[in-house]
Amino acid sequence: MRGILDTPSPDGFRRVERRPRVLCVVSQGAGALLRQLVSEGVSPWLSVQDPAEFDTGIRYPVLGGHFHNACAPAGTSPAQAARACDALLPVFGDSGGTAGLVSVPVPDRRAGGGTALVAAARTVHEKVGRRNAVVRLPASPDGIRALADLLAEGIGVHASLVFSGGRCAEVLDAYVAGLERALAAGRPLGAAPLVVSFPVGRFDREVGARLDALGVPADAEVRGAAGLAVARRMYRVREERLSGDWWRVLRANGALQPRLLWGPGADGGVGALVGWNTALALSVETLEAAALAPALTGDTLLNADAEAACALRALERLGVSVPDVAAVLEAAELHRLRHGRPVRRGSVPAASPGSGSSSGPAAEQP
């Protein structure tokens, strides 16, 4: 919520300045929820809509004091990103590199793909100049190839726009391939973390729009189930990919377990996305709303793959193709990135973790 601050100026006139919209104080209830999430292995990431809000989160004790990671919005300057990294550097050191990270986006037009993507990501990382910065790029086929190259060079990556378990598997395979190359080159594997994000709220709203078109009742059990089902599938995919002997070799050489980052949406769903070594992209407003919801009930993702499969089959029977939803959302966002256009409002929400500029809910705009 934006506030107006009336302040005197040296020339004797009074000027009105607008405070950035991000809240500067976290309530006791929200603070308690953050501690609960952390105890369940969930890392809260500060997610805001614009660079001014992000800068406020850095200057006040929101970042570092409450949130121990952050997603910088599109338009954040390298200096702003560096300040955020500095604020989180103690957390980064204390955690051994598993927290204290700042996700910095590759500029939208460069993020669309092509041979310039790796060079653009290198440039972003070099300009920020902090070891706890990770570059954010979309997990398109071009992005996945770039991801492996960057990890091999020791640059951490936040893979965004992951809308399916299959795409998540491709990203994790690229992570292992990149770390193999880094190991062969003698680079420290712990210097290149991976974050994989899925905008759960956005996915649910697109599915909801399709259910509306099919005349499915508002109180149907399938409503709001798609995003959680896909998240559970991704969680299972990560378990499968990290169960092999070669991953154990990489882990023994310092590789960090990739973290899954959920965008729950401004309308909630925080309590449904609890699992070890996962994360939530949250604005302070969304956090405060979640603090008023029922208490957490523990892990909701582990050993839930069968339940997820049932939910996805139910949607397919109703005529909602979950793979098609994933393909449409990915194509729409990549088109926006390549052409520098804003995401349309409507059935497709305006933002997702890692998607760049947005006018949508802050909880889905890292």
UniProtKB/TrEMBL annotation:
Taxonomic lineage from the root: Bacteria, Bacillati, Actinomycetota, Actinomycetes, Kitasatosporales
Protein name, entry field: Transaldolase
Keyword Transferase applies: yes
Organism this protein belongs to: Streptomyces globosus
Broad EC category: transferase
GO molecular function, one term: transaldolase activity
EC number: 2.2.1.2
Keywords in alphabetical order: Schiff base, Transferase
Pfam families named among the record's database cross-references: TAL_FSA
Superkingdom per UniProt: Bacteria
GO biological process assignments: carbohydrate metabolic process
